[in-house]
């Protein structure tokens, strides 16, 4: 789960990306993070991943108060967070299998465990038959599913996505969102930053909406719950 308590973030040069932001995303929930370009969505995700530190306020992720954590414990925080990017950031000099295996190899899993877990993840995203292919040979939607398999391969309790359907047509976008729903249904907490209002309007999830770094609606906080 995620708790933001009065979190502000100013970048060098003085730009304030987040302003006294408070919200609670309980364990096992799925929510969308919305707002215009520049509203602070990526900054919020970066604070959760410890790619940035808040200027003030507290961020608690998976029961860890990030403000109190020394830099050497950052890898431990990141191991519990799966991240899906818009441009999926796959490596085109290795196979689908090797891309998905990467987080496990970094975490020191043994050869047999890696094989078992990678195939389980590829099976969940419907790409078991593509494990030997180069990601370049896959469609945009399939590449994004490889990115999702890589994000979930070590079974993190929290899954974040930054514009995961940004380059996809509506049908493929709906498929990708359905995949996130499936992970949520087995208990994974999911937070998805997206511009795609038409896609999420039909989905029964609460929103965290930002405008100029402030919360304009957060379900459950009586500030415009859907
Ligand atoms: N490293 C940085 N240094 C200085 N300013 C930054 C930095 N990162 C983001 N900003 C500024 O902070 C504000 C919020 O940016 P952020 O990327 O969080 O917005 P966003 O809602 O994710 O936008 P988008 O949808 O375009 O990705 C913007 O005005 C941006 O220019």
UniProtKB/TrEMBL annotation:
- The primary site where this protein sits is membrane
Pfam families recorded: ABC_tran
What PROSITE patterns does this protein map onto? ABC_TRANSPORTER_1, ABC_TRANSPORTER_2
The protein's superkingdom reads Bacteria
Location comes to: Cell inner membrane; Cell membrane
Name its GO BP terms in alphabetical order.
cell division
Q: Tell me which InterPro entries the record gives.
A: AAA+_ATPase (IPR003593), ABC_transporter-like_ATP-bd (IPR003439), ABC_transporter-like_CS (IPR017871), ABC_transpr_LolD-like (IPR015854), Cell_div_FtsE (IPR005286), P-loop_NTPase (IPR027417)
> What are the protein's GO molecular function terms?
ATP binding; ATP hydrolysis activity; transmembrane transporter activity
Q: Does the keyword Cell cycle apply?
A: yes
Q: Which residues form the ABC transporter domain?
A: 2-223
This protein's GO cellular component annotations are: plasma membrane
PANTHER family named among the record's database cross-references: CELL DIVISION ATP-BINDING PROTEIN FTSE, IMPORT ATP-BINDING PROTEIN
The Swiss-Prot or TrEMBL record describes its family as follows: Belongs to the ABC transporter superfamily.
Q: How does it assemble?
A: Homodimer. Forms a membrane-associated complex with FtsX.
Q: What does this protein do?
A: Part of the ABC transporter FtsEX involved in cellular division. Important for assembly or stability of the septal ring.
Put simply, this protein is called: Cell division ATP-binding protein FtsE
Phylogenetic lineage? Bacteria, Pseudomonadati, Pseudomonadota, Gammaproteobacteria, Cellvibrionales
